[in-house]
TrEMBL record:
Record-given protein name: 1-deoxy-D-xylulose 5-phosphate reductoisomerase
Organism: Zhongshania aquimaris
Reaction(s) catalysed (UniProt annotation): 2-C-methyl-D-erythritol 4-phosphate + NADP(+) = 1-deoxy-D-xylulose 5-phosphate + NADPH + H(+)
Swiss-Prot/TrEMBL keywords: Isoprene biosynthesis, Magnesium, Manganese, Metal-binding, NADP, Oxidoreductase
Residue span(s) of domain 1-deoxy-D-xylulose 5-phosphate reductoisomerase C-terminal: 147-241
NADP found in the keyword field: yes
Keyword match Phosphoprotein: no
Family (UniProt): Belongs to the DXR family.
Source species taxonomy: Bacteria, Pseudomonadati, Pseudomonadota, Gammaproteobacteria, Cellvibrionales
Amino acid sequence: MGVMQSVTVLGSTGSIGVNTLDVLARHPERYSVYALTANRSLDTLFAQLEQFSPRYAVLADIELVQAFAERVRKAGLPTEILGGEAGLCTVAREADVTMAAIVGAAGLLPTMAAVEAGRKVLLANKEALVMAGPLFMDAVQRCGAMLLPIDSEHNAIFQCLPMQVQQGNGQLSPFLHGGVKRVLLTGSGGPFRNTASAELADVTPDQACAHPNWSMGRKISVDSATMMNKGLELIEACWLFHTEPANIDIIVHPQSVIHSMVEYIDGSVLAQLGNPDMRTPIAHALAWPERVASGVGSLDIIAQARLDFEAPDEERFPCLRLAREAAVRGGTAPAVLNAANEVAVEAFLDGRLDFTSIAKVIEQVMAVVVIVEPHSLEDVQQADRESRVCAMKFILNKTLA
Ligand code: NAD
Ligand code: MG
């Protein structure tokens, strides 16, 4: 085993961040925590600083830095406090490994900073890759970064790929170089898998966030309920594995025991199974190509007893269709889709938009905003801004068809 690696956890106070620290704490001889970052959960961050004594902590909101730095200094903690996007990018660049676990478009620049520094990047922040796919993957190649998927499905797919493709550092297409025929991307179907269309309009944020198998942040929980999460994951998989939507089948698998599958040209189908606990993909990506303990218990497959599969229902979950359309269209379409979704989900969580209108907002924004070929991150951010303004207008005016 090699030398100690320093790790930055972007979004350390969130669901993925906390799970990452749980795994890191099990292996102090392998990993040291370099930097932790948070948006609003300052008490959680403070407790993390007490436990891990990182070199830096970064607050996304620069206004909060001074008071927090004072609190940290008074407690005699050694951590230096930075702020803002510049601070996030600095700590993302400097560590050997960066866990990208900020939620949404806010994670784009810090994640790209780690990629451009040629680091090992553990990608949970799927929105960053969805928004900036071609630029993101170009940067991975150009800068020699190592990109490993944390999203459980993509991590499962990665594990089921041939070793030469895994070691091609995200540059070898499993379809061209590994005999892969298709990817079977599984999803639980979310909390409303069996809810009738007519009842979907009245579901509440708390119902949407009560996921049957996974405990996650609120934004991704709503995405799971609309199945936009599976749509974003389709786009994510196209970029990570150099393929088109036509080669990826979405399969509803309510038990979330199989995390995804890969079919080969000889008819073999490989699957990765395990308890639904994000510490497994986190530990896998951290240690790859080695293995370390994650704290996840053994899968009791006898108690599990059965595994069910069904086709997704795009009528009740139109976000799936919208995401597929954005994937096929390319250019800034996925960035537009993502931005409209973020605004609509926030409005739903705030009680300003009903559940079924989330897809309507996205559809309208995608019909209005002009799609271009992005040549720079600025082009992506421009599409993101424009789509947010457009989505907010639709929500305010309630001019939804
Ligand atoms: P979360 O809401 O629990 O945590 C988000 C983290 O990002 C927090 O630390 C928060 O402080 C930080 N953050 C939020 N807004 C920010 C901003 N504007 N600037 C800087 N930091 C900000 O979310 P999560 O469930 O941990 O998800 C994080 C990412 O991982 C998402 O992209 C999600 O899609 C992805 N992911 C999560 C899971 C899961 O099981 N939770 C699984 C797969 C992928
Ligand atoms: Mg997932």
